[in-house]
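Suppose you are handed a protein chain with no further information: no name, no annotation, nothing but its sequence. What can you learn? This example shows the usual starting point.
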Amino acid sequence: MKKKLLSAVLSAAMVASVITGCGAKDTATTTPAADNTETKTEQAADNTDTATADKADETATGNGKVYYLNFKPEQAQAWEALAAKYTEQTGVEVAVQTAASGTYESTLKSEIAKTEAPTLFQVNGPVGLSTWKDYCYDLSSSDIYSQVKSDDFVLKEGDEVKGIAYVVETYGIIYNADILNDYFGKDYAVVKSVDEINSFDKLKAVADSIQENKDDLGVKGAFTSAGMDSSSDWRFKTHLANLPIYYEYKADGIGSTDAIKGTYLDNYKNIWDLYITDATCAPTVLSSKTGEDATAEFALGEAVFYQNGTWAYGDLSSNGMADESLGMLPIYIGAEGEENQGLCTGSENYWCVNKNASEDDIKATLDFLNWVVTSDEGCSALSGEMGFVSPFKAFDNYPASNPLINIANDYVSAGKTSVSWTFTTMPSENWKNGVGSALLEYAQGTGDWDTVVTKFVDGWAEEIAATKAE
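A reasonable first move is to predict its three-dimensional structure. Written in structure tokens, the prediction is:
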């Protein structure tokens, strides 16, 4: 993703405008009674013409409806409210169903086989597209494609546009600025400014120091609990695992592979060890910890660091955290040159329209999407209520009300290199689950790190081979 484009997407300015149009209504005329017979004939002809015109109108407009299978549980209510607003304005039915966390693929497989299948769904990138491409309508001639700022935000197969990203997101290590500033003032602080934390060694030194002095600081641990149930494990089997993949791809000059080597898995181990030892809980209880636990621990000031992304802002804000209390660091793993590393920025959220839906439903879905990314109501909902940075032209006038996004933009402006979302090349959800299970067993002491390596490297090759055999 190009820095200039990302910076433009991340640094938008608010100007809201609504343009509405009204159609004029013809008035009826009456005919004198003396001309009654002629009038009846003319009226009959008029009625026939009106009926024909109405039918043509109905055919042009269609009776289409929209069924959106939403990926993001944290935005479920906002999508439902936006859908209701569109239905109120247009009369077009828009149904939104949200898959439970960690179940999107299985839910999509189930729903797509139904008679009333989703007309709008999403894939997570090239690997997701390879699974669902035969269901994806070509969006190259659509209005929504004309609204995208760059092809950096689309998934293509040849000349066909199969998916369009609707949100650019960023993740890293969110920190509590209030507690960290308090720490900097202590005699035992190993650094005196957050700017000094620019490597894994510095991050570990600070985390170890906080953990050692947690009672004095009034916290339970440096890091929130690394819960490994389905509401939380994606942070580590996917987002954290992105780092060793990113650095391997960077070193080898590639963008994907059928055989990951695991060059940076020792680095993966180092950051995972830090997460589970300098934490609010013992690693033996991680199987019972959830994403909600981690959010609560951080919002209540029980932990200083919390690996998550810009999408977590809504939960943190609703739990009482002030904007000025939030900061974000890159995820450092000890890779060479990481002092110039920025945050992890990209998208795994690409809209796809079901090409097997009826023509009316496809048209209704395309119209809905175009309204979402061009209307004041849609842009305001995505940027404000959902906190998205969206790669569409209209969003230059709609900044997200999310301080974490501004922090992401600051890293880009400072010339730091954003970490690409290489996890979209992970071979399958089954691969992620294998790595996640091995991480948990290692943390609990019921497994060793060699099993994590095996699941990561051998599991990758096995999943790729299985996919190609299908």
